[in-house]
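Appendix B, record 7
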Amino acid sequence: MNPIILRVLTGLAVLAASSPAFAAAPAAASSSTRPNIVLLLADDMGYGDVQALNPDSRIPTPNLNRLAAEGMAFTDAHTPSAVCTPTRYGLLTGRYCWRSRLKSGVLDGYSPPLIETERPTIASFLKSQGYATGIVGKWHLGLGWQKTPSGQFNFLLPVTHGPNQLGFDFSFIIPASLDFPPYVFIRNGQVTADHLVPQPAQPFPGFLRRGERGADLVMESCLDDLLIQATTFVREQARQKDRPFFLYFPLTAPHKPVLPHPRFHGQSGLGPYGDFVVQVDWTVGEVLQAIEEAGIADNTLVIYTSDNGSYMYRRDVHPDHVEDPGVQAYRPEHHRANGPWRGTKADIWEAGHRVPFFVRWPGRVAPATRCPATICLTDIFATLAEVIGAPLPDNAAPDSYSFLSWLEGRPPAKRRPPVIHHSGGGMYAIRDGQWKLVLGNGSGGRERPRGKAFAKPYPLFDLTVDTGEQQDLAERYPNVATTLEKEALEVIEHEGRR
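Structure tokens (predicted):
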């Protein structure tokens, strides 16, 4: 028997036997009027990694191409941050992460929880509307690890704050990125491993930090193991005909460690990174197949996107980019992982936060359509609320604006306010229409700033003609620059909707 099929069948049996969350069912929402929702979030996949967005890409992405062909591709979609933890906070809460205690950088696997206990999330909101809610994959938002009397982490005790405390009925996660210890699976708050073993550090491309690893977590098999849990959740929930479900599936790839499963080695012809993108695409295809085999494709809304841009890039994108030598050694030649955009992951430049974004919803979203509207991943919360016809709670999603009208092929009744971008180093930018103003000097991420990073003058770019963000137009259009700076400060200094 095919080993992947065998693992899926094994996962079905294990999950059915060990997941009391599947039995819990608050008041049901009718699945005939409210769609199932599957949200897939890649880890560090660039705009140019997908052939549907980058015809020059030699990496085969047939399943993502299919999503674009069967639904809508947003060509101006952005993450709220150019690194992962703050993007995940913004996605789940509909609130920019720089409003929280995390002003720059990311958490690690041992960090305390970032999402406030009382903060509504997409999961808690949909659960209140009768949805079954599940997460499978990378969390990276901090966990309530318990400790021994001597202050050591006790991985035998359940976490006190995690997905299950924030609206998810079922959770099967890893704590952070797959290069951060502890390397463990956590099912409904409990580490699954019988024992932990030492994990030595490894260099790029299989980059790992030294730490503890669960004996049941094998790096090259991690994405497959998560896939089993995700497709099992889909199949189990599809049997509940009177209750829709929400699955959030944050993938672990193509983020480092760049360790695609051996069966994908050589499939891209572009080295480990390209092969990992191929595996991500295949994983998406397996989820789509599970939806179809369960007979729910016509009533399932599928969203695919990424948490930030790729860490890979072509050296000819910008000459003064500072690069990790390990990344340089393994970067795929003749492939622009971030498409035509300047920079890389962590940067305030477009490559840091402009990402693939595809939506498939049969009967509601026209196939093979493209939308040029500027949207942000914080907007998913408000969009899903409008999709199911439920008002947002007063304290929910302050930075979220529905793009449902765009999905349905009609202009919105109200124009979305400007989007605020945020770099890994804490630099802001504002995007409004054709214009982008960077409130700092340099990339705010991996490039060396010229002078003081947050000092004026602030550069202004017209992205309709300058995808490389090379031509500063602030002196030519001072009124535009002044207006954008004022608008940015208004958003930054005031919580939420206006």
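Remarks on this record: The chain has eleven helices and 18 strands. Confidence is low (pLDDT under 50) at residues 1-31, 315-323.
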